Amino acid sequence: MALTENTSGSSESNPESPGHANPYPSASTADINAIKEGRHRDPFSVLGPHSARSAAGPALAIRAFVPGAREGWVVEGTTTHPLTLVDKSGFFEVILPGREGIGPYRLRFRSSEGLIFEIDDAYAFPTVLSDYDLYLLGEGTHYKNYTLLGAHLREINGVKGVSFAVWAPNAQRVSVVGDFNFWDGRRNPMRFHPGVGIWDIFVPGVQEGDVYKFELLGPDGQLLPLKSDPYGFYFELRPNTAGIVRNIEEYAWQDGNWMRDRKRHNGLDAAVSVYELHLGSWIRSPDNPEKMLGYRELAHKIVDYCLQMGFTHIELMPVTEHPFDGSWGYQTLGYFAPTSRFGTPQDFMYFVDHCHQHEIGVLVDWVPAHFPRDDHGLRLFDGSAIYEHADPRQGEHPEWGTMVFNYGRNEVANFLLGNALFWFDKYHIDGMRVDAVASMLYLDYGRKHGEWIPNRYGGHENLEAISFMKRFNELVHLHYPGVMTVAEESTAWGGVSRPTYLGGLGFSMKWNMGWMNDTLRYFHKDPLFRRYHQNDITFSIIYAFTENFMLPLSHDEVVHGKGALLDKMPGDFRERFANLRLLYAYMFTHPGKKLLFMGGEFGQWQEWRYWQSLDWHLLSYEPHQGVQRLVRDLNHLIRREPALHELDFDHRGFEWIDHHDADSSVLAYLRRSKDGDFVVIAMNFTPVARPDYQLGVPAPGRYRELLNTDSGYYSGTNLGNDGEVQAVEKEQHGRPFSVSVTLPPLSVVVFKRRDE
After folding, report:
1. What's this model's pTM, rounded to 2 decimal places?
2. Which among 120, 276, 315, 435 is annotated as catalytic?
3. Residues 488, 489, 547, 658: which is the catalytic one?
4. Are residues 110 and 152 in the same domain?
5. d(Cα 342, Cα 295) in Å, to the nearest integer?
């Protein structure tokens, strides 16, 4: 077939112009102008195949807009239909008389440079969003919204491409742009669904690996900065911010055994010791300290280390995509994307899978409390405040310079709820630590008088956020039983970890910030003065069972000039290490699950620095080795002894032996298991040894010393009890039997009655 130039098309040859003989309706000048100027709100009403029925009979019009093309044809099987260049900007049309419809076809064009190319017509394909999908999305109850919104590789009617969908209710026009269309927003304007404010399009020929963004005209008709996909699965490496089309369905998981049994690993009666990690600074390439390791390499190194150290779970500081390294991930923009700093989505799946195959649970930090102001992100997404509140008294965090989600808006709540479920669904995570819950609960959080708006009852509680958190916990535990949700909540709000049907928020656990603050304040004091502050170290037991508490010594305690944990300890060089060992043993024997930030387990001296590796070289020194050995043994001890984990959240699991000896700064207590088995814990918070110290115990017999933090093995002074002590029938502390023990300086000793 010879292709000859069609010279009949120009902006002056519009078929609607006076004197035109065409009896069929054609595109109007207004539509053509709006299309070529990139401001048509409903391009699917103009482009693609449309009925052109008139008094002359049925007809079919096919229209296309391809800037830079000067000649075109509709290719229908072996038949070609020449397109008329209606407007020199690249607007083409052909009218096929007598036709009611058309089968599969392609569009062929010759560019102004003479290049001939063929494309499938994006405007010939239907929406992938059913009426039911749209209804649920509008209602805010489509909890698998991530299967529709965003970018998805699909095959429709035998044609491969990508369907794009985005929520932007107040935009006048939305287009997907990328290398595949020369980043020209006029080429692929999207279909608008006015009832729900969603735009979508299927673009044939787009492939995995193609980069893309959304171009929007705001409510005022002004072009906005290009926006990243809120539902994007994968993004360019910072500082670039475009989405990358990625298939996340083709990973062969090997963690079936873990997934079947994880309810046992994650149970409230399980031994849970969490190692908090920042992937970018745990360890870096030894050959290039500037180079971060990838998910797969880190998986092997971290799993090997956790198996050695006895940690049951890891918690990852946010791995969601974020633009600024210095935010540590807490200013998230790509809520559905593991950051490309460490590899691809499949690489992160491998990371989780490898952990599970070695029976290590994976928790991730989730940040629904706020999002950053970056122009390419969620703020003013369609030129108006749709994800945030419009009023800065509700929509901005004055302390953090970030935006607050509008939890009362169905679509926003659906975005976040679907996001939470997405990580459990696609990445098999075992739990979420929800960041900054306190800032969500209170309307006046971080605000001065006049900077906040009361709720409808005049109070400062954020009723919409409370409802959102309850729904979050209900959905997560309904769809993924056996996983954990952990609240970072620092106030006295009641029932954070109680079921929603009892009026609680529904979290599995709550960070015990009160315990952390009281404990670190106590340990910071010179031991000479600890006798005057005994209540700081005993107060936590008064409320220990009002919530399901996790005891955190997290990254927040070793940044911003607070000093590393070892650096907080008083005394000389030796006493600092002894105090740190004492702190860890107190933490691991106290009721509650445990969380320790990386570096603390071997006594890092300096504050955490996100831009460099931990100071692993310190492990060439004996005192640091001793701290690491102790943390390892504490992890194995709480796993081995049911009394130290089964009743962490039940008052039956704890009994004071004595908390009155403030003059000696000594505490002693029992921890019990479900079947009544018990261990005896005694601790000396002074650098003075306490020989022949009498402790009341429940039963006679010999008591084996399970742990002594002053052991020479841990780089202590090696003062102890020769492995065991004998209980005698002598009343002490209101108990019929007692043991005489040596309490080494700045130490914890743990005993268990031998089976006779």
Report:
1. 0.94
2. 435
3. 488
4. no
5. 5
